[in-house]
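Intended use. Records like the one below are meant for learning the mapping from a protein sequence to its folded structure. Do not use them to infer anything beyond what is encoded.
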Amino acid sequence: MTPRELLGTADVPGGEPLRLFRRGGDFMIVLDRNELMSSRMSGSEEALATMTCQRLGARGGIRMLIGGYGMGFTLRAALRTLPADAQITVAELVPEILVWARGPMAAVTGDCLDDPRVSVVEGDVAEVIADARGSYDAILLDVDNGPDGLVRAANDRLYSAAGLARARAALRPRGVLAIWSAAPDAAFTRRLQVAGFAVEDVTVRARNNGKGPAHLIWFATPR
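Structure written out for the chain above:
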């Protein structure tokens, strides 16, 4: 088996370091012994964007917030789907993630970060949401492992009752809050409902061929 090559290490505010590995042509971002993401499995991250766009339908001047960048699968899928007048803000907490995107992972990233529809905020997406009022048609969250935090405890505030209230306030009318998770969470579904959202949860596979682990996406729209 081809050995893994360590390409870089990134500090996470309030959490354990992330490490970027390459094995052959594949990349992996790892936390301790947990593989958080891999270039081999992009299906559910892409579905986060494409299925949100389906729910937005045809509307002009779409404004979308994506947190965080990860390996850019969600961003690239959104760019393939959205029209030229869309605006996408990407909030990424860990600056090294963006350095990796433009450096060792440039062949995967392509020019998505330089697309004129894209603006990048190096910071916590929770703060971007807190500063917004009626600003976004869609907020897409692929932060940590979902509501059950793994990378850093502070990520839990995104999925708290207060965090969901801030996300609801940041949406435009008929907006969509879409949240990726590695696993189902019935308690979080109820929390979304209590926060005033109509909720649809969809199971998606990690790989584009319909195989791999089952992940879950919540699509929540203000009632």
